[in-house]
Protein backbone atom coordinates (compact mmCIF):
# COMPACT_ATOMS: atom_id res chain seq x y z
CA UNK A 1 0.00 0.00 0.00
CA UNK A 2 2.81 2.40 0.90
CA UNK A 3 4.66 1.76 -2.34
CA UNK A 4 1.49 2.32 -4.37
CA UNK A 5 0.82 5.61 -2.54
CA UNK A 6 4.41 6.76 -3.11
CA UNK A 7 4.32 5.91 -6.81
CA UNK A 8 1.03 7.69 -7.34
CA UNK A 9 1.86 10.82 -5.33
CA UNK A 10 5.44 11.19 -6.56
CA UNK A 11 5.24 9.94 -10.16
CA UNK A 12 1.74 9.53 -11.60
CA UNK A 13 -0.22 12.31 -9.87
CA UNK A 14 -0.91 15.40 -12.03
CA UNK A 15 0.48 17.54 -9.16
CA UNK A 16 3.70 15.54 -8.71
CA UNK A 17 7.14 17.02 -9.27
CA UNK A 18 7.67 14.53 -12.08
CA UNK A 19 4.53 15.68 -13.93
CA UNK A 20 5.57 19.34 -13.62
CA UNK A 21 9.11 18.51 -14.76
CA UNK A 22 7.73 16.67 -17.81
CA UNK A 23 5.36 19.55 -18.66
CA UNK A 24 8.16 22.11 -18.37
CA UNK A 25 10.44 19.96 -20.54
CA UNK A 26 7.74 19.57 -23.21
CA UNK A 27 7.13 23.33 -23.18
CA UNK A 28 10.84 24.00 -23.69
CA UNK A 29 11.13 21.44 -26.49
CA UNK A 30 8.17 23.01 -28.35
CA UNK A 31 9.27 26.64 -28.01
CA UNK A 32 10.91 28.03 -31.20
CA UNK A 33 13.14 30.40 -29.18
CA UNK A 34 14.56 27.47 -27.19
CA UNK A 35 14.99 25.42 -30.36
CA UNK A 36 16.98 28.27 -31.90
CA UNK A 37 19.44 28.30 -28.98
CA UNK A 38 19.51 24.61 -28.03
CA UNK A 39 18.64 22.68 -31.18
CA UNK A 40 15.74 20.63 -32.50
CA UNK A 41 13.12 19.84 -29.85
CA UNK A 42 13.50 16.07 -30.10
CA UNK A 43 17.25 16.42 -29.40
CA UNK A 44 16.89 18.55 -26.26
CA UNK A 45 17.69 16.56 -23.12
CA UNK A 46 16.63 17.60 -19.62
CA UNK A 47 18.30 16.38 -16.44
CA UNK A 48 18.77 17.21 -12.79
CA UNK A 49 21.73 17.96 -10.56
CA UNK A 50 24.92 15.97 -10.96
CA UNK A 51 25.67 13.47 -8.22
CA UNK A 52 28.83 13.43 -6.13
CA UNK A 53 29.24 9.77 -7.06
CA UNK A 54 30.68 9.18 -10.50
CA UNK A 55 28.97 5.78 -10.54
CA UNK A 56 25.51 7.18 -9.94
CA UNK A 57 23.38 7.65 -13.04
CA UNK A 58 20.42 9.12 -11.17
CA UNK A 59 20.26 12.92 -11.39
CA UNK A 60 17.71 14.34 -8.98
CA UNK A 61 15.66 17.45 -9.65
CA UNK A 62 16.50 20.13 -7.09
CA UNK A 63 13.18 21.37 -5.69
CA UNK A 64 11.58 23.01 -2.69
CA UNK A 65 7.97 23.09 -1.53
CA UNK A 66 6.55 25.58 0.93
CA UNK A 67 3.25 27.06 2.01
CA UNK A 68 3.13 30.76 2.87
CA UNK A 69 1.07 32.36 5.63
CA UNK A 70 -1.90 32.87 3.24
CA UNK A 71 -2.06 29.16 2.41
CA UNK A 72 -0.54 29.51 -1.05
CA UNK A 73 1.63 26.56 -2.00
CA UNK A 74 4.90 27.26 -3.81
CA UNK A 75 6.90 24.68 -5.75
CA UNK A 76 10.29 25.74 -7.08
CA UNK A 77 12.65 23.56 -9.04
CA UNK A 78 15.74 23.88 -11.17
CA UNK A 79 17.12 21.58 -13.84
CA UNK A 80 19.37 21.65 -16.87
CA UNK A 81 18.68 21.35 -20.59
CA UNK A 82 21.14 20.51 -23.32
CA UNK A 83 20.90 20.22 -27.07
CA UNK A 84 23.27 20.01 -30.02
CA UNK A 85 23.60 23.82 -30.19
CA UNK A 86 23.94 24.70 -26.51
CA UNK A 87 22.96 24.16 -22.91
CA UNK A 88 21.00 26.09 -20.33
CA UNK A 89 19.51 26.25 -16.86
CA UNK A 90 15.75 26.16 -16.26
CA UNK A 91 14.15 27.83 -13.24
CA UNK A 92 10.51 27.10 -12.49
CA UNK A 93 8.22 28.51 -9.81
CA UNK A 94 4.69 27.14 -9.56
CA UNK A 95 1.95 28.60 -7.37
CA UNK A 96 -1.26 27.05 -6.10
CA UNK A 97 -3.61 29.32 -4.17
CA UNK A 98 -6.15 27.79 -1.76
CA UNK A 99 -8.95 28.49 -4.26
CA UNK A 100 -7.13 26.69 -7.10
CA UNK A 101 -7.22 23.01 -8.01
CA UNK A 102 -3.85 22.87 -9.78
CA UNK A 103 -0.52 24.66 -9.86
CA UNK A 104 0.13 27.42 -12.38
CA UNK A 105 3.46 28.80 -13.53
CA UNK A 106 4.60 32.04 -11.92
CA UNK A 107 8.01 31.57 -13.55
CA UNK A 108 9.36 29.24 -16.21
CA UNK A 109 12.60 30.65 -17.56
CA UNK A 110 15.49 29.26 -19.57
CA UNK A 111 18.93 30.85 -19.17
CA UNK A 112 21.48 30.13 -21.89
CA UNK A 113 24.91 31.69 -21.37
CA UNK A 114 25.47 34.67 -23.64
CA UNK A 115 21.77 35.08 -24.52
CA UNK A 116 18.73 36.81 -23.09
CA UNK A 117 16.54 34.91 -20.66
CA UNK A 118 13.62 33.14 -22.32
CA UNK A 119 10.47 33.64 -20.25
CA UNK A 120 8.06 30.82 -21.07
CA UNK A 121 5.60 31.57 -18.23
CA UNK A 122 4.64 34.88 -19.83
CA UNK A 123 3.73 33.07 -23.05
CA UNK A 124 1.71 30.48 -21.14
CA UNK A 125 -0.19 33.22 -19.29
CA UNK A 126 -1.01 34.92 -22.62
CA UNK A 127 -2.51 31.66 -23.85
CA UNK A 128 -4.88 31.59 -20.85
CA UNK A 129 -6.22 35.16 -21.01
CA UNK A 130 -9.56 35.79 -19.35
CA UNK A 131 -12.45 36.90 -21.56
CA UNK A 132 -12.99 40.62 -21.92
CA UNK A 133 -16.55 41.89 -21.43
CA UNK A 134 -17.47 45.58 -21.24
CA UNK A 135 -13.78 46.53 -21.36
CA UNK A 136 -12.81 44.55 -18.23
CA UNK A 137 -11.28 41.11 -17.77
CA UNK A 138 -13.66 38.83 -15.84
CA UNK A 139 -11.61 36.10 -14.26
TrEMBL record:
Top-level taxon of origin: Eukaryota
Record-given protein name: Mitochondrial import inner membrane translocase, subunit Tim21
Species this protein is from: Macroventuria anomochaeta
Amino acid sequence: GGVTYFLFSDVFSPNSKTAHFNHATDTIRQDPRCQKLLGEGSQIAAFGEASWSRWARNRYISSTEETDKWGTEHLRFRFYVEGPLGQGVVNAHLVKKPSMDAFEYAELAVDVKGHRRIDLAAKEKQDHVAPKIFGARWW
